[in-house]
Design brief:
single chain, 3 helices, two-stranded antiparallel sheet, 10 strands
Length: about 200
């Protein structure tokens, strides 16, 4: 998964990469700081930006709409980890998972459990679109919504491949977004992306 160092320069320093199992052991043993939000991507432990009020408000609104639309037909997980392969454990803002909820009582959800993953992006738009989008696509997650707070629209990514999502549809604030992977999930973008700033 990770490129090998050039043999002509064996003494060059290289990043220390971690597996998911190593990452979880560090968390269990208190090695990872409890007061900081971190996630594991491709073996790297990355600190996430603090969630501001506008971001939190939109995640809350989106969660409310998803619960109303999905009811008990799927499991909705908020800002919790999903396990992707052996070197990634992202914590998306929202993940819609196959039910029942009891299947995750003793394990973390994996990519094969995920119907839809959603990130709400403000300052992290490029990172969420490029790096996290590629990781989700490589894992075969069928659908990825990227909520762009700045432009008040949603990028609906589908048709995952090893190089990213092949299809990206832009859904403006004035429209409804209908899931391609969660049956009967259709919600108004305006319901979670208000036209006025959230204080």
């Amino acid at each position: 998964m990770f490129p090998a160092l050039a043999q002509s320069d064996p003494g060059s320093p290289r990043p220390l990469r971690f597996s998911v199992d190593e990452y979880l052991r560090m968390a269990d043993n208190g090695v990872l700081p409890e007061d900081r939000r971190v996630e594991l991507l491709e073996g790297e432990i990355l600190e996430m930006s603090p969630t501001g009020i506008p971001h939190s408000a939109r995640v809350r609104r989106l969660t409310r709409e998803l619960f109303a639309a999905i009811a008990d037909r799927a499991v909705i997980q908020i800002q919790d980890p999903i396990r992707i392969g052996t070197h990634s454990m992202p914590e998306p803002d929202v993940a819609v998972l196959q039910g029942p909820a009891e299947r995750y009582d003793e394990r973390y959800p994996e990519a094969s459990d995920v119907l839809l993953v959603i990130e709400v992006a403000d300052s992290s738009l490029r990172y969420d679109r490029e790096r996290k989008g590629r990781i989700y696509a490589e894992a075969g997650i069928a659908e990825y919504w990227l909520v762009d707070v700045q432009t008040a629209r949603v990028e609906q990514h589908s048709q995952p491949s090893s190089s990213g999502y092949r299809l990206i549809r832009i859904v403006p604030r004035e429209a409804d977004i209908e899931s391609l992977s969660v049956p009967a999930l259709r919600i108004s973008v305006a319901s979670f992306l208000p036209s006025h700033p959230v204080a």
